[in-house]
Design a protein that fits this description.
The protein is built from eight helices and eleven strands. The protein has 282 residues and is an alpha/beta fold. It is globular, with a radius of gyration of 18 Å.
């Protein structure tokens, strides 16, 4: 059944694109189901959990800044890892890290695409929490998600059980979302904001700020045209924290530039003025 789900995902998340796009060769495809540990700018020593295939990318977005590259450049052939595989691999790695005296600060669901797309995501979350409790009870369980499946009750409930429910909201401008995040199906940003509000504060909003051009159009979302409405949405969501960050690795699209320290610091200060904690990663 999981294999069948996997090929359905490939159909849903692999729309037909036009001519090949300009991209860098230095994209990252993560091992599956466990990778790292790596040092995260935002989370500390992070042990990664990748619920997508190890040989490609499966995502409901096709972001022009994604370190894993464009979807069409990395079509997977391997199946999704099953819950038992994830559990066994995670336990082996935690046992190894314990023996080496370096336990993780966080178990992070991320990797080659959207983790909540896995049809058994809630079950895997429960197994990961049980292993965390057994081997590294001080570690946090985090999920990095693009928010496209939070309308599903089972996904919402699973995210309520993790420590860090980190959900993407790059902007509330639909045209910008279509240009930069490039969802593979209908995406209603107002509905996403309302679904984020339904977490009643158990949410960390994560936003990428950058400058530059793509396809002859500006993708700079650091100005008031974007920041003002985004701040209004953040205030409505009332998250426990906001994470603002910028490009850190090579991107598949050429012409993208980091937001400056000054720009991120200004945005951070404006979030904090709302009474919401904000972390900036440069």
């Amino acid at each position: 059944m999981i294999i069948g789900h996997f090929y359905v995902f490939l159909y849903l998340f692999a729309p037909i694109f036009g001519p090949a796009e300009s991209y860098y060769s230095m994209t990252i495809i993560y091992p599956s189901p466990i990778f790292g540990p790596v040092h995260s700018r935002r989370l500390g020593i992070s042990l990664g959990i990748n619920l997508l295939p190890a040989d490609g990318k499966v995502c409901s977005f096709d972001c022009i800044y994604c370190e894993c590259g464009f979807n069409h450049d990395h079509r997977p052939t391997l199946p999704l890892p099953m819950p038992e595989q994830v559990q066994q691999a995670l336990e082996r790695k935690l046992q190894q890290m314990a023996s080496e005296g370096q336990l993780p600060d966080v178990l992070t669901f991320a990797g080659n695409g959207e983790p909540t797309a896995h049809p058994q995501f809630p079950e895997i979350i429960d197994r990961a929490i049980a292993l965390r409790n057994q081997y590294c009870p001080k570690a946090k369980v985090s999920v990095l998600s693009n928010s496209t499946f939070i309308h599903k009750p089972e996904v919402h409930q699973a995210l309520m059980r993790v420590d860090n429910n980190i959900l993407k909201l790059d902007t509330v401008n639909p045209a910008y979302i279509e240009t930069v995040d490039r969802p593979n199906s209908a995406y209603d940003v107002e509905a996403i904001v309302e679904q984020m509000r339904a977490f009643h504060g158990h949410i960390i909003v994560q936003t990428m700020f950058m400058r530059g051009e793509y396809g002859g159009r500006s993708v700079d979302n650091t100005g008031e045209e974007y920041v003002g409405p985004w701040l209004e949405a953040v205030a409505r969501i009332a998250p426990q924290q906001v994470m603002v960050y910028t490009i850190d690795r090579e991107t598949p699209a050429a012409g993208l530039l980091k937001a400056t320290h000054e720009q991120l610091d200004t945005i951070k200060a404006r979030v904090e003025a709302l009474g919401i904690s904000c972390q900036a990663s440069y």
